[in-house]
Design brief:
The complex is a heterodimer of chains A (375) and B (289). Chain A is of the alpha+beta class and 375 residues long. Chain A has helices at residues 2-24, 28-33, 46-58, 62-67, 77-85, 353-356, and strands spanning 96-107, 111-122, 125-138, 141-145, 165-166, 187-197, 200-209, 215-224, 230-235, 243-244, 249-257, 266-275, 278-279, 284-292, 298-305, 313-321, 327-335, 345-350, 361-369. Chain A is built from six helices and 19 strands. The longest helix of chain A has 23 residues, at 2-24. Chain A is globular and about 75 Å long. In chain B, a hairpin with a 2-residue loop joins β19 and β20. With 289 residues, chain B is mainly beta. Helix content of chain B is 8%, strand content 52%. In chain B, strands 2-8-7-4-5 form a five-stranded mixed beta sheet, with no helix packed on it. A five-stranded mixed beta sheet of chain B has the order 10-16-15-12-13, with no helix packed on it. The chains are: A alpha+beta (375), B mainly beta (289).
Chain lengths: 375, 289
């Protein structure tokens, strides 16, 4: 009994001691996250100055970061915050800065060029952004000149939008049993191609809305063994543009990790479509699309919102074809900044290096979401 | 002891007499009964009993006087099928069976037309299936002639006559070349049922665009977009414009508005424009101005 009391007292004292130590001498990163004043990283070198800025950005210590800039007279703190987190609501607005990589590019006694790569995590995955910072020496420490990118100003104008919109009246709960609903849109898989990758089996293809009404689509693939028993079933999830307007085509990719094509006898594809209300607006131009060769093969281009409303989230899907026109790869990228009217936003979709040499042509589609209206 | 043996013999004799009497009670049943019609069942014997008539989903119970005829009013049995009749008393059971047949004259048609919306000019694109029922929704098993008629928006008519066997028949029709609602009618005798099938334009056909300078840019405009039967492709259909120059490519998915699709974009001399919609390709233009 006495030993038990002693153990309880010992544990309690130890816990209190650890709390005291953590409070008095916190780990710097923990203090930074807690918004404490104990974030002490020396600005005695350009790298440490930029690393300190990274800690402040992660801790949302906007005031400290802003006050540390050498060129803060050129912009306001609010403009700086908007530059980092986005001017309008977008994926970046709700992203968390996970990690900051600092790479010196050039350094002298008086100034330095430092590349900072920021790794963000958001609801659809991760993204990266980088800035080249000019750092200048001021007395015994270094100060950063933040390369502010101010919010694009869309000139006052009227953009006439007589866009088309489909509304749907579904059968109601009070309708007679058996009353017919509007028939679902007719969609068709126009291409399907299994590919064996190191990480597993991937099914690539394209889906066409051949109807005259909009469709919310998805595709499910069921792998059947050689004796026709089901092996596994997977859906396209977000590797597809779910909203298809009439005669629109989307690529899709369905992944079966750790599955070998040689074990598969056949594949059963099940496209599904649901009639939904939709709008033909906004129209997005995908400009300057370019296939860039290896190393670092990629598809780059720009999205230009031709409509008047802000697009908060854009999802770019690239379909890559070989010389015979067969789909060899499908990949995507979420744009973590909003698409302002008439304002180009760059995108880059990476192509696996082992497939890059097979890619001859591509087709890009973009799916959008606007918080102001349906899409 | 002798008295006990005598009592036992008397009991046995009474039981045998009762059994022999019960075996004499029989059911006299019709072989078939038209659904919903009146009918009667004759029993033999004497005394009282209970008559049960049942099949899948239907049961009748009557207290009957054995040796008399039991009458059933019209509509007592209306579900077609095989019925079992059982008459029971204190110590006997007698069974028999008969069939209730559906009426031979159709009274209801259940007509299923699929799909409710399809492109024009599709061979055997419309399927119509009919189930023929009598007044009581029994499938009419006798061969029945069913006429199908599809009237297009402009009044063109397709007809098919098919014989329903065991209450079911189906046919296929071509969608007509004109967009609009087609009336699909199935008729058996003087009974008919109709459905509306929406016929929508098919894929764009002969898609063609033109290019002209618009200020410092190029305006691409399609001709009125029509399908291969001359129907206007509906507004909202996506037309994809592509501009290619020096390894760069720009695409715009533009919906048709007021019958045509148009875009304005920047393009240098030598740019190649192409247009497509769904799986239909259009013309190409090389910009030389």
């Amino acid at each position: 009994m006495i030993n038990g009391r002693m153990l309880a007292i010992l544990l309690g004292v130890t816990t209190l001691a650890l709390i005291l130590i953590g409070t008095v001498w916190p780990v710097p990163s923990a203090a930074a996250y807690a918004g404490g004043e104990r974030l002490v990283r020396s600005s005695s070198t350009p790298e440490s100055a930029v690393a300190t800025l990274g800690d402040q950005l992660r801790a949302h210590a906007w005031n400290k970061a802003y006050n540390s800039f050498a060129n803060k007279a050129q912009f306001t703190q609010q403009e700086f915050e908007h530059d980092v987190t986005g001017h309008s609501s977008s994926l970046r607005t709700y992203a968390t800065l996970e990690q900051v990589d600092v790479t010196p590019l050039h350094e002298s006694d008086h100034d330095a060029e430092i590349r900072v790569k920021m790794h963000w995590s958001n609801v659809v995955g991760s993204s990266e952004s980088s800035r080249d910072l000019h750092v200048v020496k001021s007395g015994d420490h270094w100060e950063i000149e933040w390369p502010i990118v101010k919010e694009a100003i869309v000139p006052p104008q009227v953009i006439a939008v007589n866009y088309l919109r489909w509304d749907v009246i579904y059968r109601g709960a009070g309708d007679d049993w058996g009353a017919q609903d509007v028939e679902a849109p007719h969609v068709r898989i126009i291409d399907m191609h299994p590919v064996q990758r190191a990480e597993g089996l991937v099914i690539l293809g394209e889906l066409l809305n051949e109807d005259v009404i909009p469709a919310y689509v998805s595709v499910t693939a069921t792998l059947l063994s050689k004796n026709q028993s089901p092996l596994a079933a997977e859906g396209s999830f977000d590797k597809i543009s779910h909203l298809l307007l009439p005669k629109q085509v989307t690529p899709f990719l369905i992944a079966f990790p750790n599955t070998m094509l040689s074990d598969v006898g056949s594949i059963r594809m099940t496209p599904t479509s649901v009639l939904v209300a939709a709008s033909a607006d906004p129209v997005i131009e995908i400009a300057n699309q370019q296939l860039n060769p290896t190393p670092g093969a990629s598809l780059t281009g720009q999205l230009i919102n031709q409509s008047g409303q802000i697009v908060n989230v854009a999802h770019v899907l690239g379909t890559f074809y070989d010389k015979t026109g067969q789909v060899v790869w499908v990949d995507d990228e979420y744009i973590d900044q909003p698409l302002l009217p008439q304002t180009p936003v760059a995108f880059e979709i990476h192509i696996p290096h082992d497939l890059a040499s097979n890619v001859s042509t591509q087709r890009t589609v973009v799916a959008t979401y606007s918080s102001e209206g349906a899409q | 002891m002798k008295l006990r043996i005598l009592h036992a013999l008397c009991g046995l004799t009474a039981t045998l007499l009762a059994c022999s009497f019960a075996n004499g009670a029989t059911l006299i049943l019709p072989d078939t009964i038209p659904a919903g019609s009146a009918f009667s069942i004759q029993t033999t014997g004497s005394g009282t009993g209970t008559l049960y008539i049942f099949s899948t989903g239907h049961v009748l119970k009557r207290d009957v006087q054995l040796g008399q005829t039991t009458y059933f009013a019209p509509g007592s049995l209306f579900i077609s099928g095989h019925y079992l009749a059982v008459v029971t008393g204190h110590s006997f059971t007698e069974t028999g069976s008969f069939d209730v047949l559906p009426e031979t004259k159709p009274a209801q048609l259940s007509f299923i037309a699929k799909p409710s919306r399809l492109p024009v000019g599709l061979h055997n694109g419309i399927t119509g299936a009919v189930y023929v029922f009598d007044t009581y929704y029994n499938l009419v098993l006798a061969p029945t002639l069913v006429s199908f008629e599809l009237a297009g928006p402009s009044g063109t008519i397709q007809k098919r006559d098919e014989m329903a066997h065991f209450g079911a028949v189906w046919t296929e029709m071509d969608s007509t070349n004109e967009q609009g609602n087609a009336k699909f009618v199935a008729r058996a005798g003087d009974i008919s049922s109709s459905r509306v099938v929406g016929q929508v334009p098919g894929d764009p056909c002969g898609l063609r665009m033109s290019a002209q300078r618009s200020s410092q840019q190029v305006q691409l405009v399609t001709d009125p977009v029509r399908d291969c039967h001359g129907n206007a492709v509906p507004d909202g259909t996506i037309v994809t414009f592509t501009a290619s120059y020096n390894g760069l490519q720009s695409t715009i998915d533009q919906p048709i508005k007021h019958g045509t699709a148009q875009i304005t974009l920047s393009a240098p001399t030598g740019a190649m424009f192409s247009v497509a919609s769904g799986v239909a390709m259009g013309n190409q233009i090389r910009w030389e101005k």
